[in-house]
């Protein structure tokens, strides 16, 4: 056992001496100083009077309180034409809601009337909010009725 300890101590001392010699011989100090000419980084810039900044219309628009800009969708129309909305076709119930043409029979935020929102978990089916998980006349999807005497559970007729 003592031979093993002596061997470990010898290896550790050899490693320490080798590391000390390598670090002292590879590290050299540079005694000469070089002068570096610094260039003026601002000499090529144009004066502030020559730069013209164009104001954005987005920054000029304010909401009623004047605190922040109005949120506006780039696709939002400025007006809604009721004649164009209602002429889109047969059974669809199109109407102008918030200056947009909306389908009142399928839109969950305008279900049956403008700004009539369906609750969480409900879908707009034919202008009425319906829970597709438990509604017999709209089981799993709009207008899918269960058989008479059946029930709707988890969007499936007669589940279980």
TrEMBL record:
The keyword Transcription regulation belongs to this UniProt entry's keyword annotation: no
Using the record, list the residue span of the signal peptide; answer none if the entry has no such feature: 1-20
What keywords were assigned to this record? Signal
Q: What is any Pfam family matched here?
A: Stig1
Membership in a protein family: Belongs to the STIG1 family.
What is the protein name stated in its UniProt record? Stigma-specific STIG1-like protein 1
The species is Eruca vesicaria subsp. sativa (Garden rocket)
Q: What is the lineage of its organism?
A: Eukaryota, Viridiplantae, Streptophyta, Embryophyta, Tracheophyta
């Amino acid at each position: 056992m003592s031979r093993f300890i002596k061997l470990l101590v010898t290896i550790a001392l050899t490693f320490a001496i080798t590391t000390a010699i390598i670090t002292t011989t590879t590290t050299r100090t540079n005694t000469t100083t070089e002068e570096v000419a610094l260039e003026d980084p601002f000499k090529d810039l144009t004066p502030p009077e020559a730069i013209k900044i164009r104001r954005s219309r987005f920054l000029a628009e304010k909401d009623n309180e004047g605190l922040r800009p109005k949120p506006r969708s780039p696709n939002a129309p400025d007006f809604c034409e009721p004649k164009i909305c209602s002429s889109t076709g047969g059974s669809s119930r199109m109407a102008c809601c918030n200056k947009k043409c909306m389908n009142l029979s399928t839109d969950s935020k305008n279900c049956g009337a403008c700004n009539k929102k369906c609750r969480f978990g409900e879908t707009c089916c034919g202008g009425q909010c319906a829970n597709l998980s438990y509604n017999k006349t709209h089981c799993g999807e709009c207008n899918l009725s269960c058989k008479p005497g059946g029930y709707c559970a988890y969007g499936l007729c007669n589940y279980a």
